[in-house]
């Protein structure tokens, strides 16, 4: 199931990239697809977390962009001897009603695998984030988002609120 979703994301990314090129003249091509994402690193006395989340967006206009992403997070909780492998796919929409304000919505489907010396639990968990950010165009923003589907019993996060930094090149 995960492999089918990953292949779909790769195909969509390549399709967006091909559609993103708009001829200006015979020597210049205007880019409309931008790649970026985030890196996560957390180290403490009882845990270590590493995450990588590449994504791509297509700018439809100065105000609207949309894209897709994938993610992987590994977390090791030494206190409880638990290890987490988390895989995710997401779809993102960005809207800039004003130059410095960015509104966003992102749907993410995560596969969470928890294990110790033996497997403990595996399950799918959806998240639907609504966010607001200080924006520098579609390509850079700093803000906060809220997961409207937050389930405190299954979520990997302590809260439905998550701060973020988003950068695209």
Radius of gyration: 18 Å
Instruction: Give the CA-based shape.
Output: elongated
| Head-to-tail CA distance between termini | 31 Å
Low-confidence stretches: 12-26
* CATH domain class name: Mainly Beta
In what range is the share of β-strand residues?
over 45%
Instruction: Summarize the helix and strand pattern as letters.
Output: HEEEEEEEEEE
The whole-number mean of residue pLDDT values reads 84
CATH topology group: Porin
Q: Domains counted in the coordinates: how many?
A: 1
**Main sheet strand line-up:** 3-4-5-6-7-8-9-10
Main sheet properties: 8 strands, antiparallel, barrel
State the helicity in percent bands. 10-25%
SS field, number of helical segments: 1
| Secondary-structure class | mainly beta
Q: What is the number of beta strands?
A: 10
The CATH architecture designation is Beta Barrel
Which structural traits does this protein have?
Porin, two-stranded antiparallel ribbon, 11% helix, 63% strand, 169 residues, mainly beta, eight-stranded antiparallel beta barrel, elongated
Provide structural commentary.
The protein is built from 1 helix and 10 strands. The protein is mainly beta. The protein has one domain: Porin (Beta Barrel), CATH 2.40.160. The strands form 2 sheets. The protein has an 8-stranded antiparallel barrel with strand order 3-4-5-6-7-8-9-10. Strands 1-2 form a two-stranded antiparallel ribbon. The longest helix has 18 residues, at about 1-20.
């Amino acid at each position: 199931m995960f492999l089918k979703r990953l292949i779909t994301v790769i195909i969509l990314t390549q399709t967006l990239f091909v559609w993103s090129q708009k001829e200006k003249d015979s020597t210049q091509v205007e880019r409309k697809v931008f790649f970026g994402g985030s890196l996560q690193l957390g180290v403490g006395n009882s845990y270590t977390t590493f995450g990588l989340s590449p994504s791509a967006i297509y700018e439809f206009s100065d105000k609207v962009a949309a894209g897709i992403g994938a993610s992987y997070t590994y977390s090791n909780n030494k206190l409880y001897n638990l290890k987490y492998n988390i895989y995710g796919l997401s779809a993102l929409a960005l809207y800039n009603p004003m130059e410095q304000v960015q509104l966003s919505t992102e749907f993410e489907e995560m596969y969470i695998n928890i294990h110790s010396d033996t497997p403990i639990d595996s399950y799918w968990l959806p998240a639907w984030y609504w966010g607001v950010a200080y924006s520098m165009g579609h390509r850079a923003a700093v803000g906060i988002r809220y997961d409207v589907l937050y389930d405190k019993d299954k979520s990997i996060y302590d809260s439905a609120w998550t701060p973020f930094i988003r950068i695209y090149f």
